[in-house]
Protein backbone atom coordinates (compact mmCIF):
# COMPACT_ATOMS: atom_id res chain seq x y z
CA UNK A 1 0.00 0.00 0.00
CA UNK A 2 3.00 2.34 0.37
CA UNK A 3 4.76 1.44 -2.90
CA UNK A 4 3.65 4.58 -4.78
CA UNK A 5 4.96 6.78 -1.96
CA UNK A 6 8.44 5.34 -1.53
CA UNK A 7 11.77 5.60 -3.29
CA UNK A 8 14.12 2.89 -2.12
CA UNK A 9 17.68 4.03 -1.57
CA UNK A 10 20.30 1.32 -2.10
CA UNK A 11 22.79 0.97 0.76
CA UNK A 12 26.07 -0.93 0.60
CA UNK A 13 26.71 -3.30 3.49
CA UNK A 14 30.22 -2.28 4.63
CA UNK A 15 31.07 -5.82 5.73
CA UNK A 16 29.95 -7.76 2.66
CA UNK A 17 29.74 -5.16 -0.11
CA UNK A 18 26.20 -6.40 -0.78
CA UNK A 19 23.70 -3.80 -2.00
CA UNK A 20 20.69 -3.68 0.32
CA UNK A 21 17.34 -2.03 -0.32
CA UNK A 22 15.72 -0.85 2.90
CA UNK A 23 12.03 -1.46 2.36
CA UNK A 24 10.70 -0.70 5.85
CA UNK A 25 11.82 0.82 9.11
CA UNK A 26 13.96 -1.73 10.92
CA UNK A 27 13.29 -0.33 14.39
CA UNK A 28 9.66 -1.42 14.56
CA UNK A 29 10.64 -4.99 13.66
CA UNK A 30 12.29 -5.34 17.08
CA UNK A 31 8.98 -5.06 18.97
CA UNK A 32 8.75 -7.46 21.91
CA UNK A 33 5.22 -7.74 23.40
CA UNK A 34 6.50 -9.45 26.58
CA UNK A 35 8.62 -6.43 27.48
CA UNK A 36 5.81 -3.94 26.82
CA UNK A 37 4.03 -4.34 30.18
CA UNK A 38 7.30 -4.05 32.11
CA UNK A 39 8.36 -0.66 30.74
CA UNK A 40 8.40 2.34 33.07
CA UNK A 41 6.23 5.38 32.28
CA UNK A 42 8.08 8.22 30.56
CA UNK A 43 6.58 11.29 32.20
CA UNK A 44 5.01 10.40 35.55
CA UNK A 45 5.20 7.37 37.87
CA UNK A 46 1.57 6.41 37.24
CA UNK A 47 1.52 7.46 33.56
CA UNK A 48 0.66 5.32 30.56
CA UNK A 49 3.11 6.73 28.00
CA UNK A 50 6.10 4.39 27.68
CA UNK A 51 8.76 3.64 25.11
CA UNK A 52 6.40 1.00 23.67
CA UNK A 53 3.70 3.51 22.70
CA UNK A 54 6.13 6.21 21.62
CA UNK A 55 7.73 6.13 18.21
CA UNK A 56 11.39 5.39 17.66
CA UNK A 57 13.53 8.03 16.03
CA UNK A 58 14.20 6.73 12.53
CA UNK A 59 16.31 7.62 9.52
CA UNK A 60 14.43 8.88 6.51
CA UNK A 61 13.85 11.77 4.15
CA UNK A 62 10.91 13.17 2.25
CA UNK A 63 10.29 15.49 -0.64
CA UNK A 64 7.11 17.17 -1.83
CA UNK A 65 6.49 19.36 -4.85
CA UNK A 66 4.34 22.39 -4.09
CA UNK A 67 3.22 24.80 -6.77
CA UNK A 68 0.59 27.41 -7.51
CA UNK A 69 -2.36 26.61 -9.74
CA UNK A 70 -1.05 28.99 -12.43
CA UNK A 71 2.43 27.47 -12.39
CA UNK A 72 1.00 23.94 -12.57
CA UNK A 73 -1.02 24.96 -15.61
CA UNK A 74 1.98 26.63 -17.25
CA UNK A 75 4.08 23.48 -16.77
CA UNK A 76 1.21 21.15 -17.77
CA UNK A 77 1.34 19.43 -14.38
CA UNK A 78 -1.56 17.52 -12.88
CA UNK A 79 -1.36 18.00 -9.10
CA UNK A 80 -2.70 15.04 -7.14
CA UNK A 81 -4.15 17.26 -4.40
CA UNK A 82 -5.02 20.85 -3.58
CA UNK A 83 -4.28 22.59 -0.30
CA UNK A 84 -7.46 24.20 1.03
CA UNK A 85 -6.02 25.69 4.22
CA UNK A 86 -3.46 25.22 6.97
CA UNK A 87 -2.98 26.52 10.49
CA UNK A 88 -0.54 26.60 13.38
CA UNK A 89 -1.58 26.53 17.02
CA UNK A 90 0.11 26.21 20.39
CA UNK A 91 -0.69 25.48 24.00
CA UNK A 92 1.17 24.97 27.26
CA UNK A 93 3.93 22.41 26.59
CA UNK A 94 2.60 20.14 29.36
CA UNK A 95 -0.59 19.79 27.24
CA UNK A 96 1.30 19.06 24.00
CA UNK A 97 -1.18 16.34 23.04
CA UNK A 98 -3.89 18.98 22.66
CA UNK A 99 -1.90 21.17 20.26
CA UNK A 100 -3.03 19.28 17.10
CA UNK A 101 -6.65 19.59 18.29
CA UNK A 102 -6.35 23.39 18.22
CA UNK A 103 -4.51 23.36 14.87
CA UNK A 104 -7.12 21.07 13.27
CA UNK A 105 -10.01 23.22 14.49
CA UNK A 106 -8.30 26.36 13.19
CA UNK A 107 -7.43 24.84 9.78
CA UNK A 108 -10.98 23.53 9.30
CA UNK A 109 -12.42 26.93 10.28
CA UNK A 110 -10.09 28.63 7.76
CA UNK A 111 -11.34 26.20 5.10
CA UNK A 112 -14.99 26.58 6.19
CA UNK A 113 -15.24 22.78 6.30
CA UNK A 114 -17.16 20.78 8.89
CA UNK A 115 -15.13 18.06 10.57
CA UNK A 116 -17.85 15.55 9.65
CA UNK A 117 -17.04 16.20 5.97
CA UNK A 118 -13.43 15.06 6.41
CA UNK A 119 -12.91 11.54 5.04
CA UNK A 120 -9.53 10.79 6.59
CA UNK A 121 -7.04 12.09 9.14
CA UNK A 122 -3.31 11.45 9.44
CA UNK A 123 -2.21 12.57 12.90
CA UNK A 124 1.44 12.06 13.73
CA UNK A 125 2.02 9.89 16.74
CA UNK A 126 5.37 10.61 18.21
CA UNK A 127 3.31 9.29 21.14
CA UNK A 128 0.22 7.12 20.58
CA UNK A 129 -1.72 9.32 22.97
CA UNK A 130 -1.73 12.27 20.53
CA UNK A 131 -4.16 10.82 17.95
CA UNK A 132 -6.21 9.34 20.81
CA UNK A 133 -6.59 12.80 22.36
CA UNK A 134 -7.56 14.24 18.96
CA UNK A 135 -10.17 11.52 18.38
CA UNK A 136 -11.68 12.14 21.80
CA UNK A 137 -11.63 15.95 21.77
CA UNK A 138 -12.80 16.31 18.15
CA UNK A 139 -15.18 13.31 18.26
CA UNK A 140 -13.51 11.70 15.26
CA UNK A 141 -14.39 8.09 14.46
CA UNK A 142 -11.38 5.80 14.93
CA UNK A 143 -11.92 4.35 11.44
CA UNK A 144 -10.88 7.70 9.91
CA UNK A 145 -7.56 8.16 11.74
CA UNK A 146 -4.18 6.71 10.74
CA UNK A 147 -5.96 3.92 8.89
CA UNK A 148 -2.74 2.16 7.84
CA UNK A 149 -0.80 2.74 11.05
CA UNK A 150 1.13 5.61 12.52
CA UNK A 151 4.65 6.44 13.58
CA UNK A 152 4.73 3.82 16.34
CA UNK A 153 4.04 0.99 13.89
CA UNK A 154 5.66 2.47 10.77
CA UNK A 155 8.61 4.48 12.07
CA UNK A 156 9.14 8.18 12.75
CA UNK A 157 11.69 9.76 10.39
CA UNK A 158 12.60 12.93 12.26
CA UNK A 159 12.43 15.95 9.97
CA UNK A 160 10.39 14.02 7.40
CA UNK A 161 7.29 13.17 9.41
CA UNK A 162 5.09 15.99 8.12
CA UNK A 163 5.82 15.12 4.50
CA UNK A 164 5.35 11.41 5.25
CA UNK A 165 1.90 11.78 6.76
CA UNK A 166 0.75 14.27 4.11
CA UNK A 167 1.99 12.03 1.29
CA UNK A 168 0.24 8.98 2.74
CA UNK A 169 -2.96 10.94 3.36
CA UNK A 170 -3.09 12.13 -0.25
CA UNK A 171 -2.40 8.64 -1.63
CA UNK A 172 -5.10 7.14 0.61
CA UNK A 173 -7.88 9.57 -0.30
CA UNK A 174 -10.30 8.99 -3.16
CA UNK A 175 -10.85 11.81 -5.69
CA UNK A 176 -12.79 14.75 -4.23
CA UNK A 177 -12.38 13.52 -0.65
CA UNK A 178 -11.14 15.95 1.99
CA UNK A 179 -8.32 14.96 4.32
CA UNK A 180 -6.53 16.52 7.28
CA UNK A 181 -2.92 15.97 8.34
CA UNK A 182 -1.68 17.24 11.71
CA UNK A 183 1.59 17.07 13.57
CA UNK A 184 3.07 18.24 16.87
CA UNK A 185 6.03 20.56 16.35
CA UNK A 186 7.45 20.23 19.85
CA UNK A 187 7.13 22.58 22.80
CA UNK A 188 3.33 22.57 22.70
CA UNK A 189 2.96 23.68 19.07
CA UNK A 190 1.25 21.93 16.15
CA UNK A 191 0.42 22.38 12.47
CA UNK A 192 -2.57 21.10 10.50
CA UNK A 193 -3.32 21.13 6.79
CA UNK A 194 -6.58 20.50 4.92
CA UNK A 195 -6.36 19.02 1.42
CA UNK A 196 -8.70 17.69 -1.22
CA UNK A 197 -7.69 14.87 -3.56
CA UNK A 198 -7.86 15.92 -7.20
CA UNK A 199 -9.47 13.84 -9.91
CA UNK A 200 -6.88 12.18 -12.16
Automatic annotation (TrEMBL):
Species the sequence originates in: Henneguya salminicola (Myxosporean)
Sequence ranges assigned to domain Thiolase C-terminal in this UniProt record: 78-196
InterPro entries hit by this protein: Thiolase, Thiolase-like, Thiolase_AS, Thiolase_C, Thiolase_CS, Thiolase_N
Quaternary assembly: Homotetramer.
Organism phylogeny: Eukaryota, Metazoa, Cnidaria, Myxozoa, Myxosporea
Pfam families documented for this protein: Thiolase_C, Thiolase_N
Subcellular location: Mitochondrion
EC number from the UniProt entry: 2.3.1.9
Protein name: acetyl-CoA C-acetyltransferase
MF term (GO), any: acetyl-CoA C-acetyltransferase activity
